[in-house]
Amino acid sequence: MANLREKQKQQTRQSLLDHALRLFQEQGYVATTIDDIATAVGTTRVTFYAHFPNKTELMRALFGDLNRHLDRREDAEHRSTAGSLVNAAREGDFTSIRSWIGAQAAHWPDIKPYISVVEEASAVDPEMRELRDEWFGEVIDDITTGLAAAGRFDEKTRRYRGYLAMELLNSANLRWIRHPWPLDDGPELDILAVAWTSLLGD
């Protein structure tokens, strides 16, 4: 019986996340209320609060879903990490970096709803902007760790290099969301990999 209750609890939690993501896309993050989310699930705001204290914490949970799509695992030090990115940054050659970027871009169709909502929410909500910056920081940590493992570049410049690389990747992703191109064809990802290699490679 306890296992059944726990399973139902997890199903309700996931349903709240799924419906919230859909409503954020349809109505906008600010316009969507906790009551809207609860009603879409067929429950009440009391049940919502049993799972999430506010919309910001719900969005934090959505970042967890986003991390799973991107094969980022939980990490005590950095919240999340991706060994594949650390390795690509450590190698620092075009082939390794292009392979990692290609693997990430393959996830773009799946993560499009998350990225779209995060960008819209962070533009109007300071708490969401802070949450977004924290998540970006986790990715930048991976790049910095890889560069440190390789002993490449001055320690003072590694994080800034990671920041620039992440900004380029995010910009490319947002452009693809607005104006999609075939991800298995065309020069766009090659050009992005060249820029990354220039920033992170020897």
Class by alpha and beta content: mainly alpha
* Gap between N and C termini: 59 Å
The tally of strands reads 2
- pLDDT averaged over residues: 93
How are helices and strands ordered from N to C?
HHHHEEHHHHHH
What does this structure look like?
The chain has 2 domains: 1-52, Homeodomain-like (Arc Repressor Mutant, subunit A, Orthogonal Bundle), CATH 1.10.10; 56-200. It has helices at 2-27, 34-41, 45-51, 55-69, 83-91, 94-105, 108-124, 126-150, 155-178, 188-200, and strands at residues 73-75, 79-81. The mean pLDDT is 93. The protein has a two-stranded antiparallel sheet. The chain is mainly alpha-helical and 202 residues long. The protein is built from 10 helices and 2 strands; from the N terminus they run ααααββαααααα. It is elongated and about 55 Å long.
Task: Output the keywords.
10 helices, 2 domains, two-stranded antiparallel sheet, Arc Repressor Mutant, subunit A, 202 residues, mainly alpha
Topology (SSEs and partners):
Blueprint: H1 2-27, H2 34-41, H3 45-51, H4 55-69, E1 73-75, E2 79-81, H5 83-91, H6 94-105, H7 108-124, H8 126-150, H9 155-178, H10 188-200
Antiparallel strand pairs: 1-2
Helix pairs in contact: 1-2, 1-7, 4-7, 4-8, 5-6, 5-8, 6-10, 7-8, 7-9, 8-9, 9-10
Q: What is this entry, summarized?
A:
The protein is built from 10 helices and 2 strands; from the N terminus they run ααααββαααααα.
